[in-house]
Prior knowledge:
Strand order of the largest sheet: 3-2-1-8-7-6-5-4
Oligomer: single chain
Helix content: 10-25%
Structural class: mainly beta
Shape: globular
CATH architecture: Beta Barrel
CATH topology: Lipocalin
Number of domains: 1
Strand content: over 45%
Amino acid sequence: MLRTIRYAPFAAVALLTAGPAFAADSPVVGTWATEAVTDFGTFKSTLTVAEVGGGYQIDIKDVPLEGAPPAPPAPPGAISDVVVDGAKFSFKRKLAGPQGEMQFAYTGTVEGDKLTAEVDTGQFGKIPVTGTRQ
């Protein structure tokens, strides 16, 4: 019996170090229904954040404004510089508009099922964005 007790701490350490390390997923990962209220109207979209190959990938599907035609598909490389650090995130997004290409910089945080962000549009200033997990 004494032998078993003497080796118990070594066995416990061996089990802990031999098991796989499970990394906690970032709370940012998931699908979000987002809304940006501006002077030009309320813009809604579905934002999806996925963990891919050790990094993160973001996809945005814009909901057309009522009576407006569907938005054109995003060009390749439209979303870049994706950074997810715990509950914080940031990325850049290119959009083609009537005045030409525009680049927006998103920064935000997630707390539970709520997303809060800000989009720096450059030309039009900063726009607050809110979202809820779907």
